[in-house]
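Thread: quick sanity check before group meeting

JM: Hey all, I'm pulling together slides for Thursday and realized we never actually wrote out the predicted structure for the chain we discussed last week. Dropping the sequence here so it's in one place. If anyone has concerns about the input, flag it before I start.
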Amino acid sequence: MESLTSGLDTLFVLIGATMVLAMHAGFAFLEVGTVRHKNQVNALVKIIADFATSTIAYFFIGYMVAYQTGFFADAKTLAADNGFELVKFFFLLTFAAAIPAIISGGIAERARFYPQLFATFVIVALIYPFFEGIVWNGAYGVQDWINASFGAEFHDFAGSVVVHAMGGWLALGAVILLGHRQGRYNKQGQIVSAHPPSSIPFLALGAWTLSVGWFGFNVMSAQSIEGISGLVAMNSLMAMVGGILAALVVGRNDPGFVHNGPLAGLVAVCAGSDLMHPAGALVTGLVAGALFVWLFTVTQNRWRIDDVLGVWPLHGLCGAWGGLAAGIFGLEAMGGIGGVTFMSQLVGTVMGVVIAGVGGFVVYGALKAVIGIRLSEEEEYQGADLSIHKIRANPDV
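JM (edit): ok, ran it. Output follows.
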């Protein structure tokens, strides 16, 4: 019976890892549908190359940083318990690799290719697993301190802060240091070129692929058959729907906003999906959908932050909202399961934001100073497809 349970747990986590791996196709097509035609090939190559780079960084360094264990034993030892620890690594790798996939959308259309791969390696090897270990492995005694000081540990079941806020706030530094795309704003700071999505069908395909895979992202975060919870699935669904409806209304039927709405809701519900009442998850999604539309508009139009896919509002800010929402709707008084406090969630969320924000400026600032991170004006005008990969998305057109 014990061996059967071990085998089922291994299969359960492997299915989750495969579902989250498929989400990377969603990241790719969301970016392909949003960027201009001359940058579509680059979007596809970046996502798959970032995943490969992340795998090497996480296997040899990052997993050790987060969990103080690695894979340098013999194969017989690694295969113990049906190889559960190996598929657990695979599952957590797909989370880690989401960080550069998030960043990719923010820096699209003007970032150099190999400096970004180097940044991916550093982030997935050191910065992301440092915070991951604090939250999910109790490293450095931080969770003990939060528990002693505020009555509960910081709770992030599936990564609103650990994955999404980290990715969004790391991206912010890269976006600011890169600067806006050529011709995007005039000298008065007004938008000159709107750059609408190049393909709504591809954008929608990316959003649907991400949304479906997200149920593996959230539900399989239990990492065992025994821990599986229909509450997590239902809360993910309700937050997704809330995000769609809010983005539909606040975004005035704009298809780009509508298809990012479910992603905003799902980002926000990750942290408390195992604690909230479904009504609380719905409100969490509604707030996230509206927050994304409003802040995407503000960052582009008023603050002139040229974040192409809006990854800072979508992942950075909706992720931070999700960390806080777990401390509101996870409370027993709000119909939740309990075991959280708002102050614990606030402290943990701020900690993640600070680590990611500082880390993004340090990594991309150093790369900018040493080797440069931006395409030349001519390369950007020509497009990353031809400048970097020497081929268009549709060579015969």
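AS: nice. The domain at 2-389 is CATH 1.10.3430.10 (Ammonium transporter fold). The longest helix spans residues 2-34.
JM: adding both to the slides.
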